[in-house]
Design brief:
Layout lengths: L212 E6 L13 E14 L2 E4 L8 E2 L9 E2 L5 E2 L6 E5 L10 E2 L9 E7 L3 E5 L12 E14 L5 E3 L8 E2 L7 E5 L4 E3 L5 E4 L28 E7 L2
Antiparallel strand pairs: 1-9, 2-3, 2-4, 2-7, 2-9, 5-6, 7-14, 8-15, 10-17, 11-12, 11-13, 11-16, 11-17, 14-15
């Protein structure tokens, strides 16, 4: 129902007891020291005496009497005022206010009856009637307010109010327990066939089933390259160019899967003889790897310092054959009709190193089309020492540009400096047949 009426105010509470006196405030900060007094005037100089004979060294004198105290210096400046102390407790109740001014005198009473006529001592007359009340005096000065009185007694309960209006609907209760399963209905008849739906969106191309065609791609960076969209990655690894053992070399076509070794070592092979003995990292054999564009180091690098210089590669299963085409100009060649582009690059033909070492790329192989041109595209690693470095006897060979009017003519000698190297290097493109 609605709330009842407010009860009557309670009786006035008794006056509270006086509070305790407050604590004294904290002392103020000490004043600053006074200014140093002025030095006294020097005395008059005495007349110089005559030089006396040197005396016998005297005994150690008794300590002198303390000197007279110096004059007082001027009074120092006043110290800073002390910090404000905490508020004291409530003081005692003040004394009563002054009495009001006296009222005006009352009116004169009536004359009493005459006394007796004999000569006896006069008898005191009866007391006259009480005079009227004087005017009200002026109000006294206000006293200090008293402390808070005790709470009054609670008032009586109010009368019962009228019934309230209906409340808002309550929140939904928790779900009830599951009812008992009903009796199974009779099977319905077959519905009418629905109308044909709209064609669904074109799905993503699924992975191509293995075909036996392999694509090898070298990033010439420390990043592993990606296979074309929808093609299957077989493995990734490190780009091996060729190996040299017993002063003989064997190169790898960079378009073949054998040029992408899953693991790296400066000595990825060992040699065995007819005496049933195999030796590993015991001779001055070498391995050569495609390198990155990291700056050429001043000294050979070893162990983990080799990582930034070795190119990464990936082997992919693709649905069709892959070839490289070369323009022998600065123009990017177009793929043949029915073929699509995989990447463009520069026409890498051959490489040599110390002694008879070296090799070449098949110009139809994707390995002959390097995505980045480097005058030093590979690094030599000494197997037994475990170090890698760029040496001056390493050469790379690239297809050059040939203009139409330069065919069947004597080539003109030319030296290209840094910044002009790409002006005579043929461009190429790797293409895959559409299926």
């Amino acid at each position: 129902g609605p709330r009842g009426f407010k009860g009557e105010p309670g009786l006035r509470g008794l006056n509270g007891e006086d509070g305790q006196p407050g604590f004294p405030g904290n002392d103020g900060l000490s004043g600053l020291p006074g200014i140093k007094g002025e030095t006294g005037d020097p005395g008059f100089a005495g007349e110089p005496g005559r030089d006396g004979l040197p005396g016998i060294p005297g005994m150690k004198g008794v300590p002198g009497l303390p000197g007279a105290p110096g004059r007082d210096g001027p009074i120092g400046d006043s110290g800073l005022p002390g910090l404000e102390g905490p508020p004291g407790q409530k003081g005692d109740t003040g004394e009563d206010g002054l009495s009001g001014l006296p009222g005006n005198p009352g009116q004169k009473g009536n004359v009493g009856p005459p006394g007796p006529s004999d000569f006896e001592a006069p008898v005191k007359g009866a007391r006259g009637d009480k005079g009227e009340r004087g005017f009200q005096g002026m109000p006294g000065l206000s006293g200090e307010p008293g402390t808070r009185g005790l709470d009054g007694l609670p008032g009586r309960d109010g009368l019962k109010g009228d019934p309230g209006l209906p409340g808002m609907p309550g929140l939904d209760g928790p779900p009830g327990e599951a009812g008992v399963d009903g009796v199974p209905g009779t099977p319905g008849g077959p519905g009418n066939p629905g109308s044909k739906g709209d064609p669904g969106p074109l799905g993503l191309s699924g992975p191509t089933p293995p075909t036996g065609y392999l694509l090898v791609r070298h990033s010439q960076t420390t990043d592993v390259p990606q296979c074309p969209l929808g093609q299957v990655k077989l493995w990734d690894g490190y780009s091996l160019l060729y190996i040299e053992g017993n002063e003989k070399s064997h190169h790898q076509d960079l378009g073949w899967a054998g040029s992408c070794l899953p693991r790296f070592s400066t000595m990825p092979f060992l040699f065995c003889n007819i005496n049933q003995v195999c030796n590993y990292a015991s001779r001055n054999d070498k391995s050569y790897w495609l390198s990155t564009n990291a700056p050429i180091p001043m000294m050979p690098v070893g162990e983990r310092d080799i990582v930034p210089y070795i190119s990464r590669c990936v082997v992919c299963d693709v649905p069709a054959n892959v070839i490289a085409v070369h323009s022998q100009t600065l123009q990017i060649p177009a793929c043949p009709r029915g073929w699509r582009s995989m990447w463009i690059g520069y026409s890498f033909a051959m490489h040599t190193a110390a002694g008879p070492g070296g090799g070449g790329q098949s110009l139809s192989s994707p390995g002959s089309c390097m995505e980045s041109f480097r005058s030093t595209p590979f690094i030599e690693c000494n197997g037994a020492r475990g170090t890698c470095h760029y040496f001056a006897n390493k050469y790379s060979f690239w297809l050059s540009t040939i203009e139409n009017n330069e065919q069947f003519t004597t080539p003109r000698s030319q030296t290209l400096k840094s910044g002009q190297l790409r002006t005579r290097v043929s461009r190429c493109q790797v293409c895959m047949k559409d299926v």
